[in-house]
């Protein structure tokens, strides 16, 4: 779970099982339900969430102050696959950011933030498997404050470009965006063998599809820049991608602050 839309899908699954008022933290990756441990609806919740493409592990009530046990579904092979995805996302995110500067494309820079965000969130998930809730929340907060600052920088620079109207290298912009699309597909192919069940495999493709939509939007913007000879398509796509990215960052920051406030007395 790495974005507000994931949390919304999980919340919908919980409601379908007859449980109200779930608390979902995108920062610590923890779902909290106000039910007893022997409530029969818990099995329905687990089944509904599994059908939505997610995996659950039950945690002890004092997870906020004690290290969380390593998830049994994180096998050595799956961990290696996650590291490959991290390298693909962070590595190409940096490449795409450089490409954005070289091409003068704000859309590439915004899309690069999405790559970096996905990679760093996955990195935190792998690195913090055994951390307590409080430290997971703190790490997510620092990470998203950093990414949010980058996002604001891209938005600010895009606003400046509205007035400067500097030229955009449409060919380079389109080429970098096409490679970004290929990287997203490669990351999905790496993960699919380690997701059990049709629902989980479908979830991987849904996540990749959402990322690919952003890549495709940048490709279309590059084509429109070439056809129109203006930077407006690039700027419009940049605003859209950066706005979605900032929204996700703000949600994670909110959840992290809530988790820290909850866990501080037990620290």
From TrEMBL:
It is a multi-pass membrane protein. Keywords: Ion transport, Membrane, Transmembrane, Transmembrane helix, Transport, Zinc, Zinc transport. It comes from the Bacteria. Its main location: membrane. Residues 82-260 form the Cation efflux protein transmembrane domain. It holds the Pfam family Cation_efflux. InterPro entries: Cation_efflux, Cation_efflux_TM, Cation_efflux_TMD_sf, CDF/SLC30A, HMA_dom, HMA_dom_sf. Signal peptide: none annotated. The keyword Transmembrane applies. SUPFAM superfamilies: Cation efflux protein transmembrane domain-like, HMA, heavy metal-associated domain. GO terms for molecular function: metal ion binding; zinc ion transmembrane transporter activity. CDD domains: HMA (cd00371). GO terms for cellular component: plasma membrane. The chain crosses the membrane at residues 81-103, 115-134, 141-160, 172-192, 212-229, 235-253. It is found in: Membrane. This is Cation diffusion facilitator family transporter. The lineage of its organism: Bacteria, Pseudomonadati, Pseudomonadota, Alphaproteobacteria, Rhodobacterales.
